[in-house]
Design goal:
single chain; 449 residues; alpha+beta; Uridine Diphospho-n-acetylenolpyruvylglucosamine Reductase, domain 3; Alpha-Beta Plaits; 3 domains; eight-stranded antiparallel beta sheet; five-stranded antiparallel beta sheet; 19 strands; 23% strand
């Protein structure tokens, strides 16, 4: 940043107060994105302050990145410019909660764990068993678009975010949707904010639909020799009357001390209900597993205690579980059709390095490539494999492929968003409308927008 930019940043104290401006370099390391630190971080205390700060950035031609708990700053490409961080964690209030109407309104910086505690006291919950849930904020979770294994039963955030308030790149306060489930007025513009990494607007408030908290859940796991039987089991469940809370297919290899033979595939299925319903579900599921797997079915068990806790935590925290011990790993997100998961699994056998995969039952796969270390040679091999996978994108079963997490060094040579989609011209037009001055996270999203 030039000298005039540094002088301009000092004016942020007039908006948010000097106590809420961070300039110390050691503290700013926490706001790094792929090795680049901002010159300052500002912590607004209200949506009005957010709007004033964004207007200020536009006037001074400065670029900002909105952050929450900073758990997902590794996602996306490095910003072209990163003058200051907009730390939203002071906006952490539960604005309104109506348990009888199953609606909740929270500010963007509200931690998910606090939301969970508030809802649990009334026998309700949000189906956001997402990575980093113990630290993440509501705004960061929605803006990053990370999903939950509970999408099998409850859908994604697009299905239960009722409305939103946000600030556009020119500092205008906007709102979309409402605070009630039956809301039919206007366009669902707020859905554009989901997964956009803050490139279209700074989320300040989110309205959620809540759900009754299940009193009892049960997790069952079937182990198969080979992916075809595991995928046949998924198909049989989809065609049955069973309605699981979650359904995930895993091939773990020897990751994290869990040693399985190369062709061993696991299917984890969870249900909720009273005791009689759960007993019936377990009996019917076992029959489906036996019919689908035949001699390839190695085991069918109910997970209990630590086994259930560790398995469900691994599934919901997949990127954390992979990259904390191996930060050099790369994790692809592959969107396909549920019926094409068997083809995805078959294609993985050609990968030339260790890999781990988690496939959601509804057609999303997370593929982790696991080089042995972070050396230059390993990164070169990782780059080659990533380029080969991106070369498959856009045609079945690799319908949409992004590199959700990877080492920063890889981003200088590979675009994590993959080939430009057919609707990219429309995406550029939306960016120009919502952020004409390219103030918000410039360069982090698809095609450098």
């Amino acid at each position: 940043m030039n000298a005039s930019g540094a002088v301009a940043l000092s004016q942020l104290a007039d908006i948010a107060g000097e106590a809420n401006i961070i300039r110390d370099r050691t503290q700013l390391v926490a706001y790094q994105i792929d090795g680049e630190s901002p010159s300052a971080a500002v912590r607004p205390g209200s949506a009005e302050e957010v709007a004033e700060i964004v207007k200020f950035a536009g006037r001074e031609k400065l670029a900002l990145v909105a952050t929450g708990a900073r758990t997902k700053l590794e996602m996306g490409m490095p910003p072209r410019r990163y003058d200051f961080a907009l730390d939203m964690t002071r906006l952490d209030r539960v604005v309104a909660y109506d348990p009888g109407d199953l609606t909740l309104s929270v500010e963007a910086g509200t931690p998910l764990r606090r939301i969970a505690a508030e809802l649990a006291a009334h026998g309700q919950f949000l189906p956001l068993e997402v990575p980093f849930a113990d630290r993440a904020t509501a705004g960061g979770t929605i803006a990053s678009g990370v999903d939950s294994p509970l999408r099998q039963a409850y859908g994604t955030a697009r299905d239960f975010v009722l409305g939103m308030e946000f600030v556009t790149g020119d500092g205008a306060a906007a709102k979309s949707g409402g605070r009630v489930v039956k809301n039919v007025s206007g366009y669902d513009i707020h859905k554009l904010m989901i997964g956009s990494l803050g490139t279209l607007g700074v989320i300040t408030r989110i309205n959620f639909r809540t759900f009754p908290l299940p009193r009892t859940t049960r997790t069952l796991m079937a182990a198969f020799r080979g992916s075809p039987s595991a995928c046949a089991f998924r198909k049989a469940i989809a065609q049955s009357v069973l309605r699981p809370r979650s359904l995930d297919i895993l091939r773990l290899g020897a990751h994290a001390g869990v040693s399985f033979e190369k062709d061993r595939w696991l299917v984890a299925v969870s249900f909720s209900g009273d005791g009689n319903v759960l007993e019936r579900d377990q009996r019917e599921l076992k029959i489906l597993a036996e019919d689908s797997g035949g001699s390839s079915l190695e085991s069918f068990v109910e997970l209990q205690g630590d086994a259930e806790t560790n398995t469900t935590r691994f599934i919901s925290n997949f990127p954390v579980a992979i990259r904390e011990p191996a930060p050099w790993a790369a994790i692809f997100k592959i969107s396909t059709l549920p019926t094409e998961l068997v083809e995805v699994a078959r294609a993985l056998e050609s990968i030339q390095m260790p890999w781990v995969v988690l496939m959601r039952g509804l057609g999303v796969a997370y593929l982790a490539l696991m080089p042995s270390d972070g050396s230059e040679g390993s990164l070169r091999a990782l780059k080659q494999e990533c380029a080969r996978i991106f070369g498959l994108a856009g045609r079945p079963p690799w319908r949409h492929v992004t590199l959700a997490w990877c080492p920063a060094a890889l981003k200088s040579e590979i675009d994590v968003w993959g080939p430009l989609p057919a609707d990219f011209p429309l995406m550029k037009k939306l960016k120009a409308v919502f952020d004409p001055g390219e103030v918000l996270s410039p360069g982090r999203f698809v095609g450098g927008i």
